[in-house]
Amino acid sequence: MATAIDRIKSKIIATGQAKPPERARDYRRGALAVAIQVAAVVAGLVVGAGLIAGSGADPVVAYKAAFAGAFGDFYNFLETLVKATPILLAGLGVTVAFRCSVWNIGAEGQLQMGALAATALGIAFGGRGVPGIAAIPLLLVAGFAAGGAWGALAGWLKVRWRVDEVIGTIMMNFIAILFVNYMITGPLNDPNSGGVPLTRKIAEAAQLPRLFANVLIGSRIHLGIVIALAAAGLTYVFLWHTVPGYQLRAVGANPTAAQFGGISVTWSVVLSLIISGGLAGLAGMSEVAGLHYRLIDGFSPNYGATGIIVALLGKLHPLGVVIAAILFGGLIVGIDAMTRAVRVPGSIVFVMQAVIVLFVLAGELLARRWRLVE
Amino acid sequence: MTESPYRPASGIVEMIGITKRFGDVLANDRLDFSAQWGEVHALLGENGAGKTTLMSILSGLYRADAGQVRLRGNPAQIHSPRDAIEHGIGMVHQHFMLIKPFTVAENMVFGLKSPREPWLDLDGVAERVAELSNRYGLAVNPRARIQDLSVGAQQRVEIIKALYRGADILVLDEPTSVLTPQEAEELFKILRELAGQSHTVIFITHKLDEVIAVADRITVLRDGRRIATVGKAETDKADLARMMVGREVLFRLEKSSTTPGPEILAIKDLWAHGADGRPALRGLSFSLRAGEILGVAGVDGNGQGELAQVIMGTRRATAGHIYLDGKEVTHASPKERLMLGVGYIPEDRNAVGLIGSFSVGENTILNTHFSPPYARGIMLDRRAMVADAERLIREFDVKTAGHGERAARLSGGNLQKLVLAREVHRDPRALIAAQPTRGLDVGATEYVRRRLLEQRERGRAILLISADLEEVLTLSDRILVVYEGAMTGLLDAKDVEIGKLGLMMAGTKQPVAIH
Q: How far is A214 from chain B (nearest CA, A)?
């Protein structure tokens, strides 16, 4: 009798000690992580307020205008989603590479190459009567393949010649941007443009349809956001529910243990760059096929770099990246609206982005130093 | 500072009750240490015994959690390497802290004030270096560039650098690990010379030969505690080996007698380089049969780690052959070998065996995730993973909040149970277990050992790599003794003398006792 009671007692003690504190600690960890990200964004806004005040405008008025511009009404929110689309796709790409501890800074170059391939194919479809049901998937494949190939090249340089991927991808950004520039002004230049750096239009069948075009008149929202959200879901499935995704995360977390587990580090690194570049390539494809219908000089205000920011801000989790991308889409649209309401330079948006990154990184560092996380 | 007026009979360096903790690991546990004027004092112990931690406290790199340091009879507060230098303590690290494109003289004055600020006085420095070099037989040219010097010469530059800064207490961390035997001998001569000119030399090592060659006194550490301090005359290699690796016999395990079956793993004249690019395995050959435990005994760092890596396929063999079940796998990928049936319980579970940021469940499939039932084509079947993980957690009594908990949260003993569970569940034909009970408490140790014996009885072949002699003796059927990557003996576990084994571990070759 006594032993039975003792056993029950020890069970109660065991469950009472082992489980709830673990859970509580995990919750605390999660809450803290979110708090750091939120604090970083707030800090970015505060620094931005200082800059706005410095240029002689009232920060409160400015931020009110910005918020209304980005999230104030439904149409404005749709425009935020339009801006968030390429950022989200680039951010997902960066997430995949960073999960493998491959520091792909080349999302911009991969995006540019994806846009170029999609444009070339879209123009080639012109007048051939390719139906949209075939043209759009083919354009998606072209965008992914071109971006993926550009990423794979950096991967090959890394594993074959030990070129650090940070240097490699940054350098390849320049090559891609200038190459696209050349194509726009040279071989692919629209002969009727009168020297303006843009290409001919892609075939109508290859253009991503506007969403609810009959209802949402005047909105630019297009199929790209649906593709981007689907890509977020697929990225999640890839990372946590497929064998290559598992291997890629294992290599990122502990390459030695991964190797002993029979995983090829080389292959995982290259694969991560292919998928990473492919997703960034889709961002470029979506801008061309969904928004401009042609390649225009300067069509990307470095969405690739913004992708890095949202990937970090989203804690390298697809859901976090979706939230962060929408936030940053709103930041771009909002500050655009702000510059129209009060006299402040639009480049404040870049300062605020940079400040947010610094605070995200500093926040994690401080949390570790103060032993809030281990 | 060489001509200090204070010459105590007791220690010039006294460390009393030093305790240092890193997370859950007690690196130094109420350690007492003292070194005397003009002696070469060896600090002997295995990797992880706490030697480097203790000396890092003395040289101001770490701060002790508890305890006191006294220098020349007075309490000393050493909070930084700068404090240590001011107290006359110079440390020569395993990895040199020299600026390679600079000359010897330029390296001397780095971080010091010049007497002729803002100008450098390199000629004066060179003169002083030459003087020190002559006095202690260091043979260093002050105008040579570091990058042009051999490793041995670079080490002598480090010693001169410490002397130049006025050190009379020199601490050398595993100084011979980067040297050739000839260079090591030169170094020993220099150390004797320094001690003869009333410097105190403390040198950290796990090599018994060196201790005998150069030390006056020896302090043996094990598991963060001091085992003994002895004069060289009062001890010998076998005695030191026992103190260094031995452990009180905790319990006896019943070992049934089995007849070994066919050969599972064969190693033929295997050569491989270590991480430093020098040969770590030098023509090792042995054979491992079904139903036996072959113990690999040796002091840490004699090629055991490399052996495991080469068998698993994460380190390339430079020569020789590995056969698994009669099939040559010398150049097979790690995955191919895993699928052919080798398993590995690594010595360093955190860095090699597990992924800390992965869940317990994800860790249970680390080396099987590419096969069914976990892999279904490209998809990962997490439900199969969770089901098996939960079963293993129960069966092996892994204390965890659940399969979803991050592995980094588990204690050392439970991490080891997790690795053991994974490998036993895979049921490989050949299992390599490296230091499988290091750092475990008595209960967990017994559990792990019993499981290994169980595998043996089921006809599996086990290669047990351990520096713990008691473990090797308890579990093994045969014992292979390695020293510097080569075999120094192969013994039947039934008739082994610890003293003889210790000698073999120290490099003395013995005739092969059984075949």
A: 40
Close Cβ partners of B100 (under 8 Å, ≥ 6 residues apart): B145, B146, B147
Q: Coil, helix or strand for B260?
A: coil
- Residues in A touching B375 (Cβ below 8 Å): 243
Nearest to B445 by CA among B410, B471, B407, B479: B471
Q: How far apart are CA A8 and CA A15, in angstroms?
A: 11
Residue A260: which of B314, B369, B409 has the nearest Cβ? B314
Chain-chain contact of A243 with B338 (C-beta, under 8 angstroms):
no
The alpha carbons of chain B give a radius of gyration, in whole angstroms, of 25
Query: What is the CATH architecture assignment of B262-340+461-515?
Result: 3-Layer(aba) Sandwich (3.40)
Contacts of B312 in chain A (CB under 8 A): 260
Return d(Cα A293, Cα B207) in angstroms, integer: 72
- CATH classification at residue A113: 1.10.3470
Residues of chain B with CATH 3.40.50.300: 37-56+80-243, 262-340+461-515, 342-427
Mind telling me how many Å the CA of B305 is from chain A's nearest CA?
13
What is the complex's ipTM, to 2 decimals?
Answer: 0.83
Distance CA A62, CA A53 (A): 9
For range A346-355, the mean pLDDT: 82
Which tokens sit at B307?
């052996």
**pLDDT band at residue B8 using 50, 70 and 90 as cut-offs:** very low
Residues facing residue B342 across a β-bridge: B430
Q: What are B310's two structure tokens?
A: 């080469």
* Positive or negative: CA dihedral A108, A112, A118, A122: positive
| Structure token pair of residue B216 | 């006056």
Taking residues A25-43, what's their average pLDDT?
79
How many CA atoms lie within 13 Å of B63's alpha carbon, on the beta-carbon side? 7
- Whether CATH 3.40.50.300 fits B37-56+80-243: yes
Chain A neighbors of B428, CB-CB under 8 A: none
The reply to whether B391 touches chain A by the CB within 8 Å rule is no
Residue B5 CA to residue B146 CA, distance in Å, equals: 36
Task: List strand residue ranges (DSSP E) for B179-224, in order.
Answer: 200-205, 217-222
- Which tokens hold the place of B134? 């002559």
Answer yes or no: is A6 within a domain: no
Q: How far is A104 from chain B (nearest CA, A)?
A: 21
Q: Quickly count: other Cβ atoms within 10 Å of residue B75's Cβ.
A: 10
Q: A295-334 pLDDT, tens per residue?
A: 999 999 999 999 999 999 898 999 999 999 999 999 889 9
Helix (H) or strand (E) run with residue B345 in it = strand B342-345
Q: Tokens 């060489």 sit at which residue?
A: B2
Range of the domain at A206: 58-342
Indicate the range of A80-89, A185-194, B380-389, B496-505 predicted with least confidence: B496-505
Closest residue in B to A21 (Cα–Cα): B401
B466: CB partners within 8 A, 6+ apart: B295, B296, B297, B433, B434, B435, B436, B437, B472
- Residue A335 near residue A351, CB atoms below 8 Å: no
A50 token code pair? 């200082």
Strand order through the sheet with B25-35: B25-35, B13-22, B66-71, B74-75
Are A309 and A353 in contact, with CB atoms under 8 Å apart? yes
Contact flag A253-B356 (C-beta cutoff 8 Å) = yes
Which residue of chain B is at minimal alpha-carbon distance from A22?
A: B401
Taking an 8 Å cut-off on Cβ atoms, the answer to whether B379 and A241 are in contact is: yes
A-chain residues within 8 Å CB-CB of B338?
261-262
Interchain CB contact of A247 with B (< 8 Å): yes
Of 3.40.50.800, 3.20.20.105, 2.40.260.10, 3.40.50.300, the CATH number of B342-427 is 3.40.50.300
Q: Which of B352, B380, B399 sits opposite A257 (nearest CB)?
A: B352
Q: What is the predicted pLDDT for the residue at A168?
A: 95
